[in-house]
Each structure stands twice: as structure tokens, then as C-alpha cells.
């Protein structure tokens, strides 16, 4: 009995200890073994030397998707080219490979991931690997492995090596029983996609590791992200990127969501700015570890009208994809991000008109606009 009492007192002290995790020295260390793939620290690099400044040394997982290359560019500007390593399981395009350090990393290979963190003295990790909502529904076992098992690997390595860890969540972490207009930070979360379920799991596990082990976990729930120079990876909000390419190439766009489907959206520069800001925010400013961020909300019809201000002859038709429509109908229509705005000064720069004109100036539609006028 005395042993049971001592253990339960220790556990209740742990559970009551505050956010910083001070005094909790236990970390979830897995068996230390020798990786069969031990390589010299610089084996995979075409540029190897880290600066000796105080800059964080950054690893981005899943970095060849829609968001990772842009994030690397922003972070390299801030912290130096060689302090930011992009990684993925895909082969990088030439311009990406030559823009800074790139390394192969499969997040399901725990030892290899640990080796990369150790050999490169990583201090900040941005965990971008994931299968998004539509591709996740098409391959649930793979989505479960990448989004859940992969996250477990990342969490353990981050806790073991005292990293600051950023994991993005999404509007997809909410479901049909959540309040949808607006959706606050704290409310019912019962998503009906494997993507959403894995992201709620990531939010909860990250926060648990923060309170239990003192892990510096930071998480933003992104809206659908719109970018000009990178393609979306198979989500429900992809239509809002595709419309620009089709408008310029063919003047026709077939939308796979109904015209009145309202979803929160954001231009990539705002998304990446928020990501860096929350990672740089002083820990004392963060009253929470998972925040909604928001910029605008629109329907396909409203986006098409704004695009038609630039390409008046654009013809839009609708051919609804039932899987994507059901997902979109269960997601927030508007996102309440007042906590992010209050705690660390989040402020977006792009509303719908600025987003559309910026996309067209990137995609070089000037000649078409001139023709249209
Ligand atoms: N793009 C958006 O609209 C959006 C919105 C909300 C949240 N997010 C989140 O932001 C993050 C990045 O999104 P994205 O749009 O760039 O995704 P993406 O689908 O474009 O890219 C994901 C990357 O993960 C990689 N990957 C897959 N399996 C892997 C594995 N086993 N090991 C390592 N890498 C692997 C893929 O090769 C791919 O390059 C994701 O976590 C996503 O959930 C994105
Ligand atoms: C919203 C987001 O997480 C992603 N773009 C998707 O649609 O799946």
C-alpha cells in the first residue's frame, strides 16, 4: 500500500505541474540501437557547414509538398541557407536540390530520423509530412501510418533531443458536430476523415508531451492554403489553386465542390509568416499550444467572380466530387483566430482581392488580362 500511495502521489504531482514541464526529467526514450544505415554526418549533403551563430538548426520533414519549399526559403532568409535542411522521400527538382541542404528522410524510419537530428545538431523541427484529406480517404492504412505512426516517431525524437517542434493541424480537425460559423479553438472535434482524426491525435499528443515531458510543441490549424509556385497534395481545398492554372491555360474551370461551399482559406505567404512567428514567440506569450489562424473565407462562386475580374471570359462549371463535398460540408465555414491575434500578434496581410491579384502576377497572366481588356 505505501508503494501505491507513493506512486499515486508522484503521478498526481506530475499531472498538476504547470505547462513548462520543469522538474520532469523523464523523456520517452526508445531503445538506443545502432542504425544499420549509419552514415557520416555530411554524407548526403552538397553543402555541409553550419554557421556557428545562435540560429536554430532546422529540419523540415515532408518538405517537397505544397508548403515545405516555401517554408525553407523563408527560414533560410532568416537563419542562413545551411541552417535549414529540407527532407522528403521524393526526389527534389534541380532548383530545389541546389537551393540548400536536402536529405532523404522517411519519417517511418525512426533510427534514420534520429540519426539526422543527432548528426546535424537539429534544434527546430517542422513536421510537414502527411497525407491530406482526399488522398487519405483513398488510402486509409497509409494515411494512418504516415500521419499517426510517423508523428509518434517525430514526437519521441523531439522530446528525446529537446527540440522545438512545429506540427501543422488543419480546419479538417473539426467535424460536423463542431460549431462551423465561426469555429473557436476549443470546441467539439469529431472529424470524419482519417486525416482529421490523425490531426486531432497530433494536437492532443503534442500538448500531452508538452505538459508531461516539457516538449516545446507548437501547432497552428491552417485553413486551405493557396500558392502559385507549388501544387497542392490531394486535399479538399485544392480547387482554389487549380482555378488559377485552368483560367490562364484554357479559360475554363470545372469545380469539384458546389458553388456555395464556404471554407476558410489563406495565401501561402501569410501561412508561412504565421508559422515562423509562432515558433519565435516567447513561450510566456503562448496561453495555448494549438491555435486557429484565419485570413478569409469564400465559396467557389465568390472566388470565380474575383478571378473573372482578371479573366472575364473564364467559364466555370460544377461537377461535384461526392467524397470531397461531404468532407467540405463537415468543415468550418469561418475560423475564429482571436486567441492567436491576442497572444502573439497574428495578423494576416492577404484578403481575397489581394490573393487573386498576387496569384495572377506570379502566374504571369498579364498578357491575358491585357487581351481581356
Ligand atoms: N496545404 C494545405 O492547404 C494545408 C492545410 C492545412 C494543413 N496542412 C498541413 O501542412 C503540412 C504540409 O502540407 P502540404 O500541403 O505541403 O502537404 P503535401 O501533401 O503537399 O506534402 C506532404 C509531403 O509529405 C511527404 N511524405 C509522405 N510520406 C512521407 C514519409 N513516409 N516520410 C517523409 N515524407 C513523407 C510527401 O512526399 C509530400 O512531399 C501537412 O502536415 C498538412 O496536413 C496543409
Ligand atoms: C485544409 C487542408 O488540410 C488541406 N488543404 C486539405 O484540403 O486536405
From TrEMBL:
<dbReference type="GO" id="GO:0008743">
    <property type="term" value="F:L-threonine 3-dehydrogenase activity"/>
</dbReference>
<protein>
    <recommendedName>
        <fullName>L-threonine 3-dehydrogenase, mitochondrial</fullName>
        <ecNumber>1.1.1.103</ecNumber>
    </recommendedName>
</protein>
<comment type="similarity">
    <text>Belongs to the NAD(P)-dependent epimerase/dehydratase family.</text>
</comment>
<dbReference type="InterPro" id="IPR051225">
    <property type="entry name" value="NAD(P)_epim/dehydratase"/>
</dbReference>
<dbReference type="InterPro" id="IPR036291">
    <property type="entry name" value="NAD(P)-bd_dom_sf"/>
</dbReference>
<comment type="function">
    <text>Catalyzes the NAD(+)-dependent oxidation of L-threonine to 2-amino-3-ketobutyrate, mediating L-threonine catabolism.</text>
</comment>
<feature type="domain" description="NAD-dependent epimerase/dehydratase">
    <location>
        <begin position="58"/>
        <end position="293"/>
    </location>
</feature>
<dbReference type="Pfam" id="PF01370">
    <property type="entry name" value="Epimerase"/>
</dbReference>
<comment type="pathway">
    <text>Amino-acid degradation; L-threonine degradation via oxydo-reductase pathway; glycine from L-threonine: step 1/2.</text>
</comment>
<dbReference type="GO" id="GO:0006567">
    <property type="term" value="P:L-threonine catabolic process"/>
</dbReference>
<dbReference type="InterPro" id="IPR001509">
    <property type="entry name" value="Epimerase_deHydtase"/>
</dbReference>
